[in-house]
Amino acid sequence: MTRPAITPSPRQQRRPRGRTTVASTVVDTWVITQRNLLRNVRLPQVLLFSTVQPIMFLLLFTFVFGGAITGTLPEAAGGEYINWLIPGLLVQVSVFGAGQTAIGLTDDLKKGVIDRFRSLPMARSAVLAGRTFADLGRNAAVVTLMLLVGVAIGFRYQTSFLRFLAGVLLALAFAYALSWVMAVIGLYVKEPEATQSAVFLPVFPLVFASSVFLPTQTMPDWLRVFADNQPITTVTNALRALMLGEGALLEGQVLGTQLLLSGAWIVGITLVFSLWAIRAYRRAVS
Amino acid sequence: MTVTTGASDAVTDAVVEVAGVVRTFGDVRALDGVDLRVEPGIIYGLLGPNGAGKTTLIRVLATLLRPQAGRVRVAGIDVLADPTAARARIGLAGQFAAVDEFLTGRENVVMVGRLYGLSRRDARRRADEVLERIGLRQDAARQVGTYSGGMRRRLDLAASLVGQPEVMFLDEPTTGIDPRNRLELWRMIEDLVAAGTTVLLTTQYLEEADRLADRIGVIDRGVIVQEGTADALKAAVGGAVLEVVVPPDAHGRARELLAAVTGEEVTERDGGRRLRVAARDGSRTLTEVVRALDDAHIISDDIGLTRPSLDDVFLSVTGQPVGEAGDGDAA
Ligand SMILES: Nc1ncnc2c1ncn2[C@@H]1O[C@H](COP(=O)(O)OP(=O)(O)O)[C@@H](O)[C@H]1O
Ligand SMILES: [Mg+2]
Predict the structure, then answer these.
(1) What confidence score (pLDDT) does residue A269 get?
(2) Fewest beta carbons within 10 Å, which of A157, A247, B89, B311?
(3) B50 C-alpha vs ligand 1 centroid, how far in Å?
(4) ipTM value of the model?
């Protein structure tokens, strides 16, 4: 049986491929990444979430708390809360932003988009990879926006541009690791609405019980032990030491250790949760 | 077992071959031993009520779900052994349009084309052709968020077409679509087949299967209970159906009487005004019923023999009427 083509132009009779290769995996991942990036820009609620909300946090914390807090900050902050705040907020937006990975994923599951992808001869890994890459891209844009506004209202790094840049990259790497955590949450919860709270319930206490907004010294001992050892604090500390100098750290802490610990958290979280997410994805879709 | 691609060899003629497929969800046996063969170039209609297992079967065929038992071949490829190869030859339009609201119609189709493995250029060209065919060229540059339900369904169809599938799986393609768009979709599905694609569609609408499908499989509780052309299925009911229209006050009595005389299940149409029953003996049955109604002093507004519809087929095969019989369309 020969099958007449839908349109009889010979160029288009080429069969779609039935195998995935490294090259086709790269293309598929890029196609999905692009699609997810467009989602961020074109859906007003997502765009608002990733622009207005972080800026609001930045302005509120700077102008509402800034005056009261400045006195308690280490000297490395240069007497300006904004200098202390920006490295913390870069971590905070990374953590909050990672939640979008979960929400985007459940949205796609619910709408049947994932089913469509799975019925196509594309690389399966491209769905999760394209999702986390797009969220990394989105986060880079949000971080840039934060920095622009931050500089406009007085933020200045106190070290070198290279160290400052290293700090930004560290925040992005941490955000990428957290994307995988959020992917796991999304794949278990599955419902977009429920995912919203499943993501933000753990995230809020974790962000506040850290050095993101304030030094941890004044916390009660039990909380301080937790805060000082959780990854959000570690990464924030490393970021501050990179952008403001080691004076921003607690007594006894050095940049090298904080960087090493941060790197270990990032690699560890990425490894564990990406493998877990891949398993959860297989389970969620069959 | 080797399968050559291209002009398919005649090891088997069927484009879809399903044998003994079982899929359970906990205690629910969604597919309970399905056997199915679909010849190339036809529209095969899988007809069944809600919960019959239609979507589950489509998902198995489209490589989205693995059955616990059975064999599945699509376009000569063992779907369970080589799903990726199968995916290159199928198109799926699920029960709900899986299109991205934030992309334009064209972007949606181009994206799927890319994921079928077409180059950027080919994907764009194919997308434009398919959008033209499906009547969405004018709206292709608009975001899908502004599309109506019918347009989304058509776009979903267009997206599946961009990869030039040999087999299209359409899960309830016209459910929830207004009559005008439904006719339009029917026409497109017929065009597809005219162009050489084999279509397997599911439906709850008897009228739809009757109108579109070359062959029909009636599915109920995870089993294909009857298979054949629409005409063959109707003939199997026994040739003729007796239809009686009675005034509302005589409705209950007329119903009992019909059941007693024919010994068959009686169904209702038009909110109970119209009673239908299989007339195995044709005009003899008619005469008997007329006499019985007369004796009971029931005056019918209308009485006569008609060709059986798929409604009657379903009833005779499964022993129960289709859940949502009729579909709101004026016949
Ligand atoms: N993912 C699932 N988990 C549990 N039960 C399911 C699942 N999918 C389908 N079922 C059950 O399997 C049966 C057949 O469902 P389905 O194939 O969707 O029927 P149809 O499409 O004909 O309406 C139903 O009883 C349904 O509840
Ligand atoms: Mg269904």
Answers:
(1) 97
(2) A247
(3) 9
(4) 0.86
